[in-house]
């Protein structure tokens, strides 16, 4: 029985070797017929060799394989695993670091593009609140508009008008170089820069278009539209983190005021300070809704379901909707306190005016009495 099994294994191995050496499209259907049962019914575990499927990048010539249908196989092992398991061949995914920064409240995109025209990437949508700049050697870019940012092949920078910068494939020690390019065109620099990190992994052999993970997203390939989509969500997320902390600071300030009023029964805030808090709360809410475009769907996501899937997954991963709801709730708390304190200041002003009127009436009475007494004295 074992001799028969070894003979069968040797014959199948030789057959697969012969098929792998041929690229004529007439063999593609037979290859699919053989490979699919092997993958579905664990054929490799039974006969002691593995079959690896990959996507071909050529679709034009008669002798090439179809992009979506073609497969290639390689005999990896001719014997059984020592522990009875499979010996699969895995291709390590390409890891692309993504770093998001928020260090200013406004960036002049027009002047930025004018000074970096060779690096400017032509936009593919009507969105005007960001630009994409490309740096480095991009000679490694291949097929289907994919970028394949492996090693030092190139890096991309997505810059948003509201102050966020998202860097793709930039090493840690090179970050300051690219941020210095933006700093020349930024206004409203923050005392403390916000930072977040993420990863994009390219895996051409991925069975689905995308797959999520802990602090990373895996794609079949990353292209310009993917960079724009991922960058838009990360840019909104890091900016929302800044505005959330701003609102948290206002909440803490009003909490201290309320505790002081509870302890002393007095309110000491000046009207000017209160108006400053009103302006700060309103401007933060306006920036989140208008500048960040938190509720505006990406044009790229509208056009292509693949990027809509990335956009929706990342928005859910970074909890943008829930975080905005939390920020909105805190702003309502601030608004309630502002209204309450405004009433106190208004009452305080009304009390002052009432006492002023009383003082004026009293002064008028005293003057009248003085006048009466003076006339009486003159008549005597």
UniProtKB/TrEMBL annotation:
InterPro entries: DUF155, RMD1/Sad1-interacting. GO terms for cellular component: mitochondrion. Pfam families: DUF155 (PF02582). Residues 157-327 form the DUF155 domain. It comes from the Eukaryota. Belongs to the RMD1/sif2 family. PANTHER family: PROTEIN RETARDED ROOT GROWTH-LIKE (PTHR16255:SF6), REQUIRED FOR MEIOTIC NUCLEAR DIVISION PROTEIN 1 HOMOLOG (PTHR16255). This is DUF155 domain-containing protein.
